């Protein structure tokens, strides 16, 4: 009687899983395979009017991307977003989480809510406020800098400053999410470890370095991987603030993809860009996982 | 269970009623898309149209210019284009190629409207392979805005009209200005100047039915050399529009005496230049190689989208918005120059010297190539011109690169052309 039960259970399990499997096949793998096929064709504007004018071009789109200065420009900018923006964002989240979690802090729920507010605010509304802040003549940022005799900067209009300006906005907008994850992680650090360290005479910094951070390592890995991936896919911030300008200085890869795909309707080329970005993210994530130190023995 | 029936009934009754209402000849509702400022004010004009046509309701939806192109394309692919809308006339060829637009010829044939009522060069941007797809709504072209006092100080009481004397005038202004001052501001990251000069020199810009670049041909070469020399001689500063904080302020300071720009600047100049300069600025038509030259043919048209079920009602609205008095009203609301020549006489536009220059220029316009890729090609033009200006490439190699890039972009058009040709032979 045991054998049939196991088989029945397996069948029931399969049946229960089936809806999700079908959904994933239809709505995830289907489009991905279609995108892969698309990236091997030159599906474009002319193909909308006459589908028979789409041609199979093999790896032509990929070769085109690799020889296109715009692609390399966007890749460079995306790498800046991912490797400057993401660490900055994680650092800010961690620092804020430590402050929120500190014993001396009162009204913890209030601070959590305040820091989380930008995450749930619509970006378009946020962008309007930040445009005011960055306004070169009357903006608050320049007004504050003027107190320190810093000359006026055209934050969103100057190709040198637009990228940092977008990064600051992105960090401010997104750090609250990781903050919540860090706070949860901090609350899971066993009290006894802190008490033991305190008894041994460890200072605050030593406890942070030797107790808190090692205990946070798994959370840290999760947060840094997802944040780096998110910053690789940065789109909305430059899209609403600068449309990739001035002079393409904030044009992330996803923005370039959007432009090629939906503005010029070069779907084949845009699909190829998507797979190139996928490859870049894959490599970066694998490297990140490898770099993570093995769990230390305590 | 009973409750469910009640719910169904509650939902069903209004549906059934609305269905009855529709069958009883309720008004036709037109959806119209309009962009930017035009989208904000067209609603006012439309109210009057609705009073005249109680059987037609118009629902205007505003689209921001920055997202207009992708919205239109996506809507076309998704089958959700409105009944009619505003379309920048440089996009007509693209949407015509996509078969997203309804030809207007059947209506034009028995209407009181024709090319003769409009600026010819602008009208032509609405015609693709002999089929008219758009009715010009407002027009736009580029010409010179300049400071009369700086020209007078250099010994000129009017803007020269041919390239050689124009260049002499620019040199005279530069000579009086010194090292930090220039004669003209031509942003190096804008296509306007190199493209307009090329059109003036008689270049078609693209050759073989828009399948190849024609930038190495002598006509464009001549214009390109003229343009690049303006920077090489120091008559224009080699900077882009984003490297200058406030061009009105720089004009006021005399950093340069003129610039090439469009009609929206009439309002900006009146608002932003100080009172002391208000009597000192003027507009002038573009100088050409041997006399007044052509300029770009811009503006927006009214188009009917292919899927509309109410073409008659659309046409009524398009005709209404094209009435001279509506065009004048529209001009008062937006500052957009009317497309119909009759509106110019009615509104006093033709008697004000600053707008008259636009009227004169609009009689001499040339359309840019009617290919969907044009917007991107125009970007490549200034990018390569910029390289030549900065000495990163010789004019020869910059133009060779330009042709190579453009030829690559137009590869699909060549392939389509050969396919069409062999298809025609086959049948």
Structure, explained:
The complex is a heterodimer of chains A (298) and B (427). Chain A is mainly α and 298 residues long. Chain A has helices spanning 2-38, 45-49, 60-66, 69-101, 108-120, 123-134, 140-147, 162-187, 191-199, 204-232, 236-241, 253-263, 267-291. In chain A, helix 8 (162-187) packs across helix 10 (204-232) and helix 10 (204-232) runs antiparallel to helix 13. The two termini of chain A are 48 Å apart. In chain B, the strands form five sheets. Chain B has a six-stranded mixed β-sheet with strand order 2-1-3-14-6-15. Chain B contains 19 helices and 16 strands. The model of chain B is unreliable at 13-24 (pLDDT under 50). Chain B folds into two domains: 27-139 and 298-351, Periplasmic binding protein-like II (D-Maltodextrin-Binding Protein, domain 2), CATH 3.40.190.10; 143-296 and 369-417, 3-Layer(aba) Sandwich (D-Maltodextrin-Binding Protein, domain 2). Chain B is of the alpha/beta class. The chains are: A mainly alpha (298), B alpha/beta (427). The A-B interface holds A 42, 44-46, 48-49, 53, 55, 136, 154, 157-159, 243, 245-247, 262-265 and B 66, 69-70, 73-74, 76-77, 94, 97-99, 189, 240, 242, 245, 372, 376, 412, 415-416, 419.
């Amino acid at each position: 009687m045991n054998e049939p039960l196991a088989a029945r259970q397996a069948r029931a399990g399969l049946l229960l899983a089936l809806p999700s499997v079908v959904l994933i096949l239809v709505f995830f793998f289907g489009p991905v395979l279609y995108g892969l096929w698309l990236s091997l064709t030159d599906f474009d504007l002319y193909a909308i009017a006459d589908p028979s004018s789409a041609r199979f071009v093999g790896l032509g789109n990929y070769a085109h991307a690799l020889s296109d200065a715009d692609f390399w420009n966007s890749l460079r900018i995306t790498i800046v977003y991912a490797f400057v923006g993401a660490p900055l964002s994680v650092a800010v989240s961690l620092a804020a989480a430590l402050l929120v979690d500190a014993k001396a802090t009162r009204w913890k729920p209030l601070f959590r809510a305040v820091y989380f507010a930008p995450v749930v605010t619509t970006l378009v509304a946020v962008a309007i406020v930040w445009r005011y802040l960055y306004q070169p003549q009357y903006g608050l940022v320049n007004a504050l800098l003027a107190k320190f005799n810093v000359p006026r900067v055209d934050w969103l209009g100057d190709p040198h400053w637009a990228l940092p300006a977008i990064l600051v906005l992105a960090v401010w907008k997104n750090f609250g999410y990781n903050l919540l994850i860090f706070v949860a992680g901090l609350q899971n650090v066993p009290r006894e470890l802190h008490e033991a360290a305190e008894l041994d005479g460890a200072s605050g910094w030593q406890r942070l370095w030797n107790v808190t951070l090692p205990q946070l390592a798994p959370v840290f890995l999760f947060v840094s991987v997802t944040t780096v991936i998110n910053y690789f896919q940065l789109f909305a911030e430059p899209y609403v603030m600068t449309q990739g300008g001035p002079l393409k200085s904030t044009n992330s890869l996803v923005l370039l993809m959007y432009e090629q795909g939906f503005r010029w309707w070069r779907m084949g080329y845009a699909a190829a860009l998507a797979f190139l970005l996928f490859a870049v993210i894959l490599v970066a994530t694998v490297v990140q996982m490898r770099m993570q130190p093995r769990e230390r023995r305590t | 269970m009973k409750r469910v029936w009640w719910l169904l009934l509650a939902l069903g009754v209004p549906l059934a009623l609305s269905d009855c209402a529709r069958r009883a000849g309720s008004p036709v509702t037109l959806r119209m898309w309009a962009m930017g400022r035009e989208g904000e004010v067209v609603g006012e004009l439309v109210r009057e149209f609705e009073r005249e046509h109680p059987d037609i309701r118009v629902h205007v939806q505003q689209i921001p210019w920055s997202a207009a192109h992708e919205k239109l394309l996506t809507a076309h692919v998704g089958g959700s284009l409105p009944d009619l809308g505003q379309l920048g006339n440089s996009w007509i060829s693209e949407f015509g190629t996509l078969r997203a637009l309804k030809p207007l010829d059947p209506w034009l044939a028995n209407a009181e409207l024709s090319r003769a009522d409009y600026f010819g060069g602008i009208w032509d941007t609405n015609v693709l392979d002999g089929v008219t797809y758009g009715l010009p709504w407002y027009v736009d072209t580029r010409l010179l805005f300049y400071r009369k006092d700086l020209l007078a100080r250099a010994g000129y009481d009017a803007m020269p009209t041919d390239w050689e004397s124009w260049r002499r005038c620019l040199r005279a202004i530069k000579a009086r200005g010194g090292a930090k001052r220039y004669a003209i501001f031509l942003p190096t990251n804008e296509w306007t100047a190199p493209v307009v000069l090329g059109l003036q020199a008689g270049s078609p810009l693209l050759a073989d039915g828009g399948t190849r670049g024609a930038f190495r041909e002598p006509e464009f070469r001549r214009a390109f050399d003229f343009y690049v020399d303006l920077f090489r001689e120091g008559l224009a500063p080699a900077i882009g529009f984003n490297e200058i904080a406030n061009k009105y302020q720089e004009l006021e300071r005399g950093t340069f005496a003129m610039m090439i720009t469009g009609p929206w600047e009439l309002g900006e100049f009146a608002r932003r230049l100080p009172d002391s300069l208000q009597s000192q600025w003027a507009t002038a038509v573009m100088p050409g190689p041997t006399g007044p030259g052509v300029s770009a043919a811009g503006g927006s048209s009214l188009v009917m989208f292919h899927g509309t079920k109410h073409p008659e009602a659309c046409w009524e609205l398009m005709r209404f918005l094209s009435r001279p008095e509506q065009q004048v009203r529209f001009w008062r609301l937006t500052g957009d120059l009317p497309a119909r020549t009759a509106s110019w006489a009615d509104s006093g536009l033709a008697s004000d010297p600053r707008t008259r220059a636009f009227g004169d220029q609009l009689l001499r316009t040339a359309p840019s190539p009617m290919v969907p890729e044009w917007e991107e090609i125009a970007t490549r033009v200034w990018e390569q011109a910029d390289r030549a200006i900065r000495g990163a490439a010789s004019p020869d190699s910059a133009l060779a690169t330009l042709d190579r890039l453009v030829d690559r972009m137009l590869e699909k058009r060549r392939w389509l052309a050969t396919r069409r040709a062999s298809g025609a032979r086959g049948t």
